[in-house]
Amino acid sequence: MTSAQTPHMPSAKDQWATGLTMFGAVMLMLAGLLGIFRGIMAIAKDDVFLSTPDYVFHFDLTGWGWIHLVLGVIAVAISFGLFRAAMWSRVGGIAIAGLIIIVNFLSLPYYPLWSIVLIAFSGFIIWALCVVRPETVSSMFD
Description:
Layout: H1 12-44, H2 61-83, H3 87-106, H4 112-130, H5 134-140
Helix pairs in contact: 1-2, 1-4, 1-5, 2-3, 3-4
């Protein structure tokens, strides 16, 4: 068998790159879905959240709900691009995960434990999408 006839065996580096991209895609989809649910919860039923009257970044809970809902929908849409290993989705995934961190930090007093969980999720998403070189991932999906 010549080198032209041998099938391409992915290296360990290629497998790690694909795995990390899929990890980022799944985690972004989960963070997006959780953001959607949190947004719906804040819009529909405000009494689930803590009330903090003297918070500097005070919005109506319905306003926070819409912010979380919109970011969640965008995150889910971007995660579908990550499953196709599109470069725009890696950049968008990093950006939306950063925005999710900021929004969850700002809404920390309303639902503290859940905000910390989503901040950690988003940190893992950013790490997974930044650590892999684009050419390694795109070669695995061709």
